[in-house]
Amino acid sequence: MAEFSEEVGAKFVKQAPPINRLVGEYPVSHADDTRPFLLRASIVLYTGEMLLLDRANKHIKLLDTNFKCLSVMKFTTYPFDICASNRKRNEFYVTEPEAQTVFCIMAGNGRMTKYKSWRIDEDCRGITCWKSGIALSVMRDGFRGTLGFLSYECKIKRKVWESELHAELFKAPWYLASIRDGDQVVVSDQGNHSVICVDAKTTNVIFIYKSDILIGPRTLTVDSEDNIYVIGSSETCHNVVKITPAGKLKGVLLSRRDKLNYPSGISYSMKDRAVVLQRNHDKPTVSIFRI
Questions:
Q1: How far, in Å, CA of 245 to CA of 279, rounded?
Q2: How far apart are the first and last CA of the chain?
Q3: Is the residue at 166 inside a domain?
Q4: Residue 8 placed within a domain
Q5: pLDDT one-digit tens code per residue, 14-52
Q6: In this structure, is the dihedral angle defined by the CA atoms of residues 91, 178, 130 and 218, taken in order, positive or negative?
Q7: In terms of Cα–Cα distance, which of 62, 57, 51 is closest to 94?
Q8: SS3 for the chain, per residue?
Q9: CB distance 25 to 287 below 8 Å
Q10: In what order do the strands lie in the sheet with 205-210?
Q11: Domain count of the chain?
């Protein structure tokens, strides 16, 4: 029997008995907090520590392996997305859209510090590392977004927004991930309610996944086999959908029955073979679910 629900067309054809995937749920707070924790994005470090982007308090929280908040890194507005560097395992890139800036930070073993920053002069949102640098999503001319491919020092290599081929492809590409050893970039487009995969070298479209079960896609993460886990967060959709690296639906991993309520900030823990997220935006906690 399937591990979780699968879909053909618009109908679920298999439904497994409910599986309790929850490993644990942990409160998140720091003495500097002025509002309840609200997760925007997250990443699990090689040490097992976590970086949590807290939109409500405009900072990044560093959690140890016991989920204790060790320190925070403050931003002028709020950090939006984060990715691990391909070059150093303690190096990470963070976007701050209202400041139009990308930051390089160092984190791990109880420490966290800003290292470099670059002014992008674009409303930068999602970020991921591809094989030869950084991929960045930007919002331009209001509710219309696209991609750019940059070096590790944030120098533009290719501007997808200058390509007529991609003029109507993206609408609100808020979050990114990479697969195939950085050869492909996966885009979560909230505006088009779709997940789009493009070749990082040619910018050709590899696949577009779109379904009624994924409305309002937000953060996404990938596992060691390049399977893609996407959060659906909208009035009608509160779930985590699993998609293969070929763009095919694998199933719905988490849903309302797992007490998801506008979930956010998913990331993958390779060591634990689990996903991390805030499953309920009304509760200042992070939850761990095995996959």
A1: 24
A2: 16
A3: no
A4: yes
A5: 445 567 899 999 999 999 999 999 999 999 999 999 999
A6: negative
A7: 51
A8: CCCCEEEECCEEEECCCCCCCEEEEEECCCCCCCCCCCEEEEEECCCCCEEEEECCCCEEEEECCCCCEEEEEECCCCCCCEEECCCCCCEEEEEEHHHCEEEEEEEECCEEEEEEEEECCCEEEEEEEECCEEEEEEECCCCCEEEEEECCCCCEEEEHHHCHHHCCCCCCEEEEEEEHHHCEEEEEECCCCEEEEEECCCCCEEEEEECCCCCCEEEEEECCCCCEEEEEECCCCEEEEEECCCCCEEEEEECHHHCCECCEEEEEECCCCEEEEECECCCCEEEEEEC
A9: yes
A10: 173-179, 184-189, 194-199, 205-210
A11: 1
pLDDT score for 17: 59
The per-residue pLDDT of the chain, averaged, comes to: 90
CA-CA-CA-CA dihedral for 24, 287, 280, 231, to nearest 10: -140
- What type of residue sits at position 25? E
How far apart are alpha carbons 146 and 24 in whole angstroms? 37
Q: Which residue has the tokens 């939850």?
A: 287
Which pTM value belongs to this model?
Answer: 0.92
Q: Which domain holds residue 270?
A: 1-30+228-291
Low-confidence ranges of the chain (pLDDT < 50): 1-3, 6-15
Tokens at 273, concatenated: 């073979």
Indicate whether 163 belongs to any domain.
Answer: no
pLDDT (0 to 100) of residue 91: 97
Q: Note whether residue 253 is domain-resident.
A: yes
Which CB contacts under 8 angstroms, 24+ apart, belong to 233-237? 233/262, 233/263, 233/264, 237/213
